[in-house]
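=== RUN LOG ===
request id: a7f3
mode: sequence -> structure
chains: 1
length: 423
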Amino acid sequence: MATTQTPVSHVWPLGTVLDPEGVLQLGGCDARELAREFGTPAYVVAEDDLRTRARRFLAAFAERTDDFEVHFASKSFPATAVLRLFAEEGLACDVASGGELHLALNAGFDPAKVHLHGNAKSEAELQMALDARIGDIVVDNLDELEALQRLIPVGRRQRILLRIAPGVSPDTHHHISTGGPNTKFGFNPADAQVAIARAQASDKLDLDGLHFHIGSQILDLEPFRAALEVVAALGDFHTYNMGGGLGVAYTHEQSAPAIDDYVSRKVDLLREIVGPGKRIADEPGRALVAHSTVTLYTVQSVKHNVATWVAVDGGMSDNLRPMLYDARYEAMVVGRPNAGGTVAHLAGKHCESSDVLIHDVDLPDPRPGDVIAVPVTGAYGHAMANNYNGQPRPPIVFVSNGNARAVVRRETYEDLTRRDLDA
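=== RESULT ===
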């Protein structure tokens, strides 16, 4: 009998293997046992993967500059346990709403290391940030600049960055491109000059620097140069936050820039275009969390129309990305990992024709009751989870060194009515 473990491809969480019987092991835990204990669908998170990637980002910057800050883009995986882990690892945190601010503070982030984003912040959210005395407020527009000055008490100053739309669009899906010439985010260069003058003239604002974020799932690092050149022309500042955006491989055929290469590119560009002695901030989200998580499903039915349809007990309620922007994934039948089986559509359970998790995926001899594992679901799976068709949202299960623990419980049907008020 075989006694060795078999590595899997780079899209699975760090440390993932197949045991001698070919069964997927996540954080040292049998995926079939996890499905039995916690039910499906379930987000299974390899804790060590999260910690390792956070440390790699910090080490990559520390090797190249003394003045930096790495912010976890919390919108990618806004769960208390994930936030707490990154706070423990020494990251800062960027939040894009009052709710995310509440989550970050509740998870233990130092308020001074929390930074508020958003293109339509309410006055209540700005007041919440001021009351918490967070680090930066990243100002998006002139209306917000005016509101913020009105809200800041006399005698107090708030550190801000201005978000700039540099007019650069990277090679990514248009739904996740944010820095082009006609975006809802940030100041165009002309309005930025007005905002800079107003902020510098204010006795309530400390304009520390400029921010830009050109998009997400970026696999080509070249567009950062053009974006920084536009931003650098606006003046000389202490801090330059170059956003996040580092993409990841979602299937074994894909590759993505290494963290070291991404960080080196940004640090080198800042020195070349702006000059030495500047503080650089970066906002990885997807690149920190995507590979940490595998979603487990159970097959409910297999049927053959023109194509073969394998239907599972989840879908667009736990992973909206395939429906929003044609995101591509791969999948494994747990216990039968070898390819060469049935080419099928992995379908969700929801009443929408678009509820297909993966088109044309190779699933060896799929049967009702099989456990299906889909990797690279840490970014925007839980964040976008919803109750469509009355589907309770899945649990989040942390795994490490053979131990598994639920950090977010599965919703119940009773949770669906918990907020109802008596008529």
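=== NOTES ===
The chain is about 25% helix and 25% strand.
The chain has two domains: 6-46+290-417, 48-288.
=== END ===
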